[in-house]
Design brief:
The complex is a heterodimer. By secondary structure, chain A is an alpha+beta fold. Chain A contains five helices and 13 strands. Chain B is 7% helix and 59% strand. In chain B, strand 13 and strand 14 form a beta hairpin. The relative contact order of chain B is 0.11. The chains are: A alpha+beta, B mainly beta.
């Protein structure tokens, strides 16, 4: 029995789905407004494609994910071929995987759930989202900028002294019209740029404008990045609680 | 005529292109080169071309039909050196024989075996919380990873590296889901000899643990009572399975046999995965192992999952990077002063292409048919390239 490298990915998806909600504006107010914009979404259904790019190769995983509240998610892997059909169910602190080719349901331990996705440029903090960009940082508008033809606020976030966060400070560019986060630079406590995140391909999906292409570019490693494409997303879809069940893990389809 | 055919083909394609298509097709093609070394035979080789085709049809929302075929073409000098090898490869252990097999030799040393087997052929009916499945299917009640005393329908050998799906059972199964993580099942299957295995199963979740209870009859001969669980102690998962078997015909004058496995696994912060498991088998007391090749085989039986009273397993698995995973598995069999060592490497060559190198080494003090005990060493090396579609 091999360890399944897709497990942390499913947690990442859940985090990203709720993170789409967290695209911010002016200083604290702007950040809060953006954070509030989608905050409290009841549920979402999304189809995504994640590509890990390295200087000499790239690998892609595609999936569909159903999320409800903060505690329930079901993820179906749709590509690559040898992992297609695997599902992951998360309810509160418990998580299971289903592998249709071996007809096996496995209860996953917490140690597997707290893993960063090996190989991608996302970190454990992205997955666990233990820190809050609203409460753990102070905020200041430091300028204005234009990104992808859209006028943006440029906001500096500095970590509060008592906050348990991994970034010393952050620069975030937030679109003035739609309050979308379009770019971020994340710095460590010594002031060095660690990674850059960009958001693009702004499209209307389910009646709202959202960036559908997210990129994470680590500073130190030449030619490395992770690209996340949102192919489709719907918000506030009515999903019954029973949808997030072991029965449905075995039956859910795209 | 052609136009009509063209339109119907087009229609199938357009329907299968839809988000909720009514047909799904998948599988893989692999080539595996195997090298064996045993003291009595010396070096032996074998090449296997292996194809799997899975076809799933969804003619209605409540109905799924699955047909899965496994085709293998095996060539090598193993053919002439393992007595009954071709028979073993071409045997269908199911109630219905769904295997085609042919064999031959190129010369006195090298031969081939071609087998085509339908190892899944079932219809699944879903009505609300009820799911009924009829036909050749996999009923997997395992909780642990190496030895599964609860897996009474499709016992398998850990050492069979090229068959993750495992054989199916020709069974009727009815499942009723009583909650999001609980269900009740009944299942029954006749085997190729017409002996019936039938059991009831109850699964539930409490205090963060999955528990299961099993009761039934194994191959018309033994009463089976079993239990299994999966949960965790702090950050380490803790799983186990136990089954008790007792002959029905000699119920009063025989004691039963117990099989149990207990295991733990943990993933460290650097993605290193550590797994341990041990098995106790009362059946093993009466088993005799002459040769490690006895540990493989398609007609694996739950009574033979362990071949020594105690077996101990440990493994480490580590993703060196996203493309390369290395692992090392080991077993210890105290009764035989024997051990197994299994290092392996998996390399991703593309989104759908993977290469694996697997090594199995066995060493134990085995008794031969004349009653002489001698240390035997067996080495098997596998090199496989697998394309999934």
């Amino acid at each position: 029995m091999k360890k399944n490298k897709l497990i942390p990915l499913t947690l990442l998806i859940a985090a990203i789905c709720s993170n789409l909600a967290a695209q911010g504006l002016t200083a604290r107010e702007v950040i809060e407004k953006a954070d509030d914009k989608f905050y409290g979404e009841e549920s979402s259904v999304a189809e995504m494609k994640m590509t890990i790019v390295r200087p000499s190769w790239e690998r892609t995983v595609e999936f569909k994910s159903w999320n409800k509240g903060t505690g329930k998610s079901l993820t179906l892997i749709t590509a690559p071929a040898n992992e297609k059909g695997q599902t992951f169910l998360k309810r509160g602190n418990e998580m299971w995987s289903w592998n249709p080719s071996i007809s096996r349901l496995i209860k996953l331990p917490p140690s597997m759930m707290s893993q960063g996705w090996m190989g991608s440029d996302y970190t454990n903090d992205d997955i666990l989202q233990e820190s809050s960009i609203v409460n753990d940082y102070t905020h200041e508008i430091v300028g204005e900028d234009t990104i992808e033809g859209r006028s943006c606020y440029k906001i500096k976030l500095v970590a509060r002294e008592d906050a348990a966060v991994i970034w010393g400070h952050q620069l975030r560019w937030i679109d003035k019209d739609e309050f979308l986060f379009l770019k971020a630079e994340l710095y460590d406590f010594d002031g060095y740029l660690v990674r850059t995140e960009t958001a693009g391909r702004i499209q209307e999906m389910d009646g709202r404008m959202i960036p559908t292409r997210l990129e994470v570019i680590p500073e130190e490693e030449e030619g490395h990045k992770t690209i996340l494409l949102i192919e489709d997303i719907e918000f506030n879809v009515s999903i019954p609680d029973q949808f997030f069940s072991q029965q449905n893990m075995k039956q859910v389809r795209r | 005529m052609f136009q009509r055919l063209f339109i119907s083909v087009l229609l199938v394609y357009s329907l299968s292109g839809n988000a909720q298509s009514w047909v799904s097709f998948s599988g893989y093609l692999n080539d595996m080169q195997t090298l064996y070394h045993m003291e009595e035979t010396g070096w032996l080789w074998e090449n296997q071309v292996h194809n799997r085709l899975n076809l799933d049809l969804y003619p209605a929302g409540w109905l799924k039909i699955s047909l899965q075929a496994r085709t293998r073409f095996i060539q090598g000098n193993t053919y002439s050196n393992f007595p009954g090898y071709a028979d073993m490869l071409g045997r269908d252990a199911g109630w219905v024989d769904m295997t085609l097999s042919t064999e031959g030799t190129y010369n006195n040393i090298t031969g081939y075996v071609f087998t085509l087997m339908l190892d899944r052929a079932y219809a699944e009916f879903s009505f609300g919380d009820f799911v009924g499945t009829v036909g050749r299917q996999r009923i997997n009640w395992g909780q642990t990873f190496v030895w599964n005393p609860n897996d009474i329908f499709n016992a398998y050998s850990y050492f069979d590296v090229d068959y993750p799906e495992r054989p199916g059972s020709d069974a009727v199964r009815l499942q009723y889901y009583t909650g999001i993580a609980s269900n009740i099942e009944v299942a029954a299957k006749p085997d190729s000899a017409g002996k019936v295995t039938a059991a009831g199963y109850f699964r539930f979740n409490t205090f963060g643990y999955d528990f299961q209870l099993i009761g039934g009859v194994l191959a018309g001969e033994d009463l089976v009572l079993g239990t299994g669980w999966s949960g965790n102690i702090v950050n380490t998962s803790f799983r186990g399975e136990a089954s008790y078997f007792r002959n029905l015909e000699h119920f009063a004058d025989t004691a039963g046999n117990l099989l149990f496995s207990v295991g733990a696994d943990h993933t460290f912060g650097n993605s290193l995965w550590l797994q341990t498991e041990m098995l106790y088998s009362a059946f093993a007391k009466e088993m005799q192992i002459y040769n490690f090749m006895q540990l493989f085989g398609t007609d694996m039986n739950i009574r033979r999952i362990g071949f020594t009273e105690w077996s101990i397993f440990a493994s480490l698995s580590y993703p060196i990077n996203l493309l390369l995973n290395a692992s090392l598995a080991g077993m210890y069999f105290p009764d035989l002063k024997g051990y197994f060592l299994g290092p392996s490497v998996d390399l991703s060559l593309g989104n759908n292409l993977k290469a694996s190198m697997i090594f199995h080494g066995f060493s134990a003090a085995l008794e031969d048919l004349q009653g002489n005990t001698e240390r035997q060493n067996t080495f098997i090396g596998y090199l496989r390239i697998k394309w999934s579609f």
